[in-house]
Design goal:
By secondary structure, the chain is α/β, with parallel strands linked by helices. It contains 15 helices and 13 strands. It has a single domain, classed as Metal-dependent hydrolases (TIM Barrel). α3 runs parallel beside α4 and α4 packs parallel to α5.
């Protein structure tokens, strides 16, 4: 049975070297010969503790150990949107080229999501066109906010239009959350609540602001089992049925949950069986994808695959979750 991991991250060594000791944000501090921490605004953002985070050969060994056939590579935060505009444009192209070379060298083991310089909208469109036509990316990574700017801002509409035209799903992954200052005040780890709430606000914003209504063919992958969206659907729909949404300037022809069910997929990075059952019941098995969050400490292929086995799905549904849904969504060959 083929296994495709849609949520994992690779830091190209050149990107690590670029951020190493860089003044300001983002920056990186090495904590050992093979470990490091990325920082943004003096807060820890990403931890590197496994060689597979940057070494493709080590990654392939881990994939073989856990039976993962293919990974869809993405750059996690900190990404290029934090850099000055010109620098960000250059590095988006470099990272896409490095990912493409990895995919070419290990054909069939890797595909990639495009990294885009969202701080420069015109260059962003140009790089997406190149990444799709020349580098054959299978989707786009966008973060839950772009240096504080909501991803449902009109300046990003051209990206959604192109994604719809090209049939590329958009992978919504956490960024430094807009609630960072609040989390500082209450001394809560960013990875505990901040990341999950930020992606939920981002995808909810895509629905509330009419982006999904405007682009009905747009498909989104909502990281970490959909944040908290599947578990508060009643309240989300109630905001509209009770008239509260109108007070805030929102109006939709369909309930928010319908847009989510039609246009959103979630990866299974949760590893908690009741939550997985809830997501499957809400979305249907056809919208659930395998993700591991490899190689972050809170993720792992072993936990991901074991949690899927513990669901005790039928053979048909298991194949959909492990690979079939991803292949259909991204147009991957058998």
């Amino acid at each position: 049975m083929k296994i495709i991991d849609v949520h994992n991250h690779l830091f190209p060594p050149a990107w690590i070297d670029h951020l190493d000791g860089r003044p300001g944000s983002p920056t990186l501090k090495r904590t050992g010969p093979k470990t490091m921490i990325f920082y943004y605004a003096d807060r820890p953002l990403s931890h590197v503790h496994k060689e597979g985070h940057y070494d493709v050969d080590a990654r392939l060994q881990d994939m073989d150990e856990y039976g993962i056939d293919t990974q869809i590579l993405s750059l996690t935060t900190p990404s290029v949107e934090f850099l000055p505009a010109r620098e960000g444009v250059v590095w988006a192209a470099k990272i896409n080229d490095m990912f493409a070379e990895t995919c070419r060298k290990h054909e069939g083991r890797f595909h990639a999501f495009a990294t885009l310089p969202f701080q420069q909208p015109k260059a962003c469109v140009k790089e997406l066109e190149r990444a799709y036509k020349d580098l054959k990316v299978k989707g786009i990574t966008i973060f839950s906010n772009i240096v504080g700017k909501p991803i449902y801002s009109p300046q990003f509409y051209p990206i959604y239009e192109m994604a719809e035209e090209y049939g590329l799903p958009i992978f919504v992954h956490p960024a430094p959350p807009i609630t960072t200052e609040v989390l500082k005040k209450v001394n809560m780890p960013t990875s505990l609540y901040g990341f999950i709430l930020d992606t939920t606000m981002a995808v909810s914003g895509l629905i509330f602001s009419g982006v999904f209504e405007r682009f009905p063919g747009l498909k989104v992958i909502h990281a970490h089992l959909g944040g908290v969206f599947p578990y508060m659907v009643g309240r989300i729909n109630g905001i509209f049925t009770d008239g509260i949404a109108i007070e805030w300037g929102y109006s939709l022809p369909k309930p928010p949950s319908v847009y989510y069910q039609e246009q959103v997929y979630v990866d299974c990075v949760s590893f908690h069986i009741p939550a997985l059952h809830c997501a499957i019941e809400f979305l249907g098995i056809d919208h659930i994808l395998l993700g591991t969050d490899y190689p972050h400490p809170l993720g792992g292929a072993e936990q991901a695959i074991q949690s899927v086995k513990d669901l005790r799905l039928s053979q048909e549904d298991m194949e959909k979750l492990l690979s079939g849904n991803a292949m259909r969504l991204m147009g991957l060959e058998e």
